[in-house]
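Weekly modeling sync, notes
Attendees: S.R. (lead), two postdocs, one rotation student

Agenda item 3: backlog of single-chain predictions. S.R. asked that every request posted to the team notebook include the full sequence so nobody has to chase files. The rotation student volunteered to paste the first one in as an example of the format we agreed on. Action items at the bottom.

Example entry:
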Amino acid sequence: MQCAFCSLPAALQTYDGDTSMSSRDDVRSRARLVVTNPDMLHVSILPFHAQFGPLLSKLKCVVLDEVRPAPREGCTGLRR
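Predicted structure, as returned to the notebook:
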């Protein structure tokens, strides 16, 4: 598979609630394209952004899906 945004071969990985703990290190270190959801972004990626440094430092694009209006109490995904 070829990356749609560059000429590199895509290493596509999913990172969601079904991703095993043993596979998560591989996703963080080797993936070029990561498919996730807003909840995992909020709960598992943003709070541990240091562990995702290699992936996030090369980030060129974010595609949001499953976006819904924020609850009155706050907005999922935002950190203070």
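Discussion: group reviewed the output briefly. Residues 1-80 form one domain.
Action items: rotation student to repeat for the remaining queue; S.R. to check formatting next week.
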